[in-house]
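Tutorial handout. Part one gives the primary structure; part two gives the three-dimensional structure as C-alpha cells.
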Amino acid sequence: MEGEQSTIQAIRGSQEGRILYLGLALIGALLVVVLFFLVIDPPVARTLVFAFFAHSMGGRAAGIGLCIATDYGRIFTIAYNFYIELALVFVSYASFVLTLKHYINFKYLSIAVKNAEKKAHKHEKIISRFGWAGLFIFVMVPFPLTGPVLGSFMGYLIKMKMRSIFSAVFSGTLAAIVMWTYFFSYLDKGLHIFKYVFAVIIAFVVIFSFKSLKGWFTKEIQD
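Part two.
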C-alpha cells in the first residue's frame, strides 16, 4: 500500500505525470461538452463522439474527413481535430515514458509500449540526424505510422527536450490538419458522392485500425 502511494506521488511530481493529468483533463472536458450537447443538440454530440473515435482509431484524415462530410466548417474541423491530437499525444506520451520508467506497470500497456518503442527505433537515426525539422516533417507527412503519437515517442528516445518535442509534434500536426481539411473541403465541393464514399472508407479504416491496435496491446511484435 505504501509502495503504491509513493508511486502515485512520484507520478504526480514528475513532468510526465502532470502531462498525463493534463491529457486526461482535456478528455474529461470533452466528455462534459458531449454530455451538454447530448441534451440540447444530440446530432452535434454524435459528431463529436464519432469524429473522436474516427480520429483515434483511423488517424487524423478519418476524423477530419468525418467533420467535413457532416458539413462542419473548416475552422471547427481544424480546431476540434487539433484538440483531439493534444489530448491523445499528452496521454500517450506520458503513459509511454512512465511505463519505460516503471512507474506504470500494466501488462497490456507494457506490451503496447514495447511495440511502439520498436517502431520508433526504426526511424530514430533519421530523426536524430535532422533534429526538430526531422521530427516536424515526420509528423506532418501523410504516411503510415508517421503520426504525432509515434513522433513524440521518438523525440523522447533521441533525448530531445520536452519543449522541442511538443513544439515539433504539434506544429507538424497543425500543418497536416490544415492541409487535410482544405483537401477534403475541395473534394466535398467537387464530388457530390463524397459523403457516401468517405463513409464507406472510414468504416473500413476504423475496423482495420481497431484490429491492428488490439494486436499492439496483446502481442509483442517481432524485430
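Part three, for discussion. The chain has a mean pLDDT of 81. The CA atoms of residues 71 and 177 lie 17 Å apart.
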